User: Fold these one by one.
Assistant:
Number 1:
Amino acid sequence: MIKNLLFTLIFAVLLSSCSQSLSDKQTETTEKLTEKQRATKAKLEKRDINLPSGSTLLDKDSGFSFLDLIGADSKTDYAVNSLLFNVALDKIEFMPLLSVDANSGVIVTDWYSVDGGKTRIKINIRIVNQEMTNESLSVNLFQQTYKESKWTDNGKNDSQANKIKESILSTARSLKIASEL
């Protein structure tokens, strides 16, 4: 009886110390992440992107890291404004994405139907530099209409593209000001 009690007590102490060690490692790993890495991790979790267990992508010995693959490595010097890029990505998150490249600042959506499927739009966004000016951001919105069993190009919709551009710039500027307080 005493042996069982002693064994249970020792087992409980070992178990709690192991869980504390694991918790410390998780906290330590989280603290080492840059702000950009934490934001990327949050986006991955929000979009429910999970790697299968046993995946070697996150191993340090794999030659590259998962953060390198998605463009969130803190060692990379970006030519584009990451805040502007993330705001642009958030603004169009309802649309299916064809291509996203954080290093070059390019976001390309797939066609998205509006008006009950009679009209569809596609948006291309390009962030050119680190600034937050009108010249730093290029937004193109293409529109098509479904007529006679086929999609007909309506060309670019510059007025809607400018509204999206102003919305992205306004939000990014507000976030930058708020982060500097």
Number 2:
Amino acid sequence: MNAEMAETESKKENEQQSEEVKAPEQPEQSASDSSDKSETKDESKTAAPNSAAVNNLRVLENIEVRLTVEVGNTEIKIKDLLRLNEGSVVELDRLAGEPLDILANGTKIAKGEVVMVGERFGIRFTEVADPEEMVQNL
């Protein structure tokens, strides 16, 4: 079966190469036509629907991540933790009204505010972290 797949792949590559060779080049026409061609060239630089990059992203689309909203945090001694009971209040490091951190698998990806969605809590993204920063924080 692997031999059949390899043969099919080589046939597809040969067909693509022959199509590229057969495509005649058209001479440039007016300035407006050349701008249309540059737009077409720019479009060809984007990932084609069946390209490897798009297929790789499609694989990643189905991976589940844990989205967490962090209200705040604090450090507390164990003796104080053991004394907590119903009605106890622990002060957090976050000010009231300050945007909350939104984490994906423990990595900060955005800030947001709490909203009501029907009878449930939701989070509205107000600021999304720069992708380069997210990668550095991994």
Number 3:
Amino acid sequence: MQTEVSVVLDVTSNNSYIALIVNQTLKQFDIYENKNNLSDSLIEYISHILSKQNLALKDINNIYLVYGPGKFSAMRIGATVAKSLSLLNKSNLYIIDKFDYISSTNGWVVVKSDGNKSFICHYSNNKKDTTPQLVEDSRIKDHVGNEQVIYESDNKDNIINKLPLFKKVDYTFELEYLKKPC
């Protein structure tokens, strides 16, 4: 039986994660604090997680990337690593934006940004019905009122069920920013 190795990356937030899925079984799920050192450590994190299962970077068949919104540099580094591994390994590459990844119901989705701001977007019938926007945390209640709010979480418990939501792309995909990068 051929081993199917998938890596799921979400490096867009302060609490980022890397998940390792082998033959549709979650083998490792590491949450780590993203301290703006991804360019020095992301490949090392991935390699370390793989080595715990006696695997190597060359064994990756599928890469799933949550690509934003979030920290600009982290988004770019995550995309660069995902694209590079996909190209070098001839791996399948899948992407999803963080709102679609988090949302599975109707209501507001809130994704924490740096400082005192968050990204928000509203869903009806499991589809975005507002343009995602960046708002001051103190103003979130003005937007969401008393509606249901889904806050960003690690998604560990349902990560395998979320994989079909990702869209297959090639390594030439472009990131979409809600605000212009610095």
